[in-house]
Design a protein that fits this description.
By secondary structure, the protein is of the alpha/beta class. Helix content is about 40%, strand content about 20%.
């Protein structure tokens, strides 16, 4: 039987926080009306690259990547991943100074990630890096090598922020803490974005359904967490719950004025630092 509903392809990371957000939409817990949602999972850098091509109607994106997508996508007010005095971390096998980081090779999860942008801003230099899949960075740091290249430190996102110590690695820098001390703002890492060519009515509908999915997960936390655990890559329930709480919270329901200000400040400072070529003013769904 043909499904005549409008197809909305959704891109998100195979991680507990994204899975938690999309639990209701992925498991038919809410009425989506005239829309049919099809979920496609990929790591955030792959989603950033796909967004550059406008492939998905609704997709998770890094706020750094958004600087190159603002002509094609509008940011949802809900679905944000914000680090309030915490964020992506630089780890190594032993303690070292920030200056020493600049002289080594750092494994990064992608050059369009917000993690990469903030680290560039923090170090103040264009450091040597190797792009490594986010879920292989910790192993690369422990081994000290990745595909023939020496690795001196790693820029860790997702659940690696909670598990790096299990591999006897040392925290060198928390970019979220650095950003807060610099700006007194939370660090906006990722958001969901809707393609502009869908038109205002469809954009509003998608935004409403995304918000309903997030709210359903928060209202039905244990069943949503059961689903999210499938994407935890070894996280036990306690750590998965903690990780979800870090990135699915009041900021996820609404950026709020402070969160939107943080996005604008991130893009502005990224431009001032010479990492983002053009100054971008963020646009949010009304």
């Amino acid at each position: 039987m043909n499904d005549s509903r409008q197809l909305i392809r959704v891109g998100h990371s195979p991680d507990p926080d994204d899975a938690f957000m999309f639990y209701a939409l992925a498991n038919d817990k809410i009425d989506t009306g005239k829309y049919r949602f099809e979920h496609e999972m990929a790591d955030i850098e792959a989603l950033n690259r796909r967004a550059l091509l406008g492939e998905l109607e609704l997709t998770a994106v890094s706020l750094h990547a958004y600087a190159y997508l603002a002509d094609r996508y509008v940011l949802c007010n809900c679905g944000a991943s914000m680090g309030d005095q915490y964020g992506p971390m630089v780890v190594a096998t032993s303690k070292r100074s920030i200056e020493e980081l600049s002289n080594g090779t750092i494994a990064v999860p992608g050059t369009l990630t917000t993690a990469y942008l903030v680290l560039r801003m923090c170090l103040g230099v264009d450091f040597d890096y190797a792009v490594v899949p986010f879920d292989r960075i910790l192993d690369a740091v422990v081994a000290g090598r990745y595909e023939g290249r020496t690795i001196d430190a790693g820029l860790v996102i997702h659940e690696g922020q909670l598990t790096y110590a299990e591999q006897n690695l040392e925290l060198i820098l928390d970019t979220g803490r650095w950003w807060f001390e610099r700006t007194d703002l939370p660090l906006p890492l990722g958001a969901n974005a809707v393609r502009k060519d869908l038109g205002e009515e469809t954009i509003r509908d998608i935004h409403r359904l995304l918000l309903a999915s997030i709210s359903h997960g928060l209202d039905n936390r244990q069943e949503a967490l059961d689903y999210a655990l499938k994407f935890g890559r070894g996280l036990n329930r306690k750590k998965a719950d903690r990780f979800v709480e870090m990135y699915v919270n009041r900021w996820t329901l609404d950026f709020e004025d402070r969160g939107r200000r943080a996005v604008a400040e991130l893009l502005s400072q990224g431009h001032d630092a010479g990492v983002i070529p053009e100054l971008v003013v963020p646009e949010f769904v009304e």
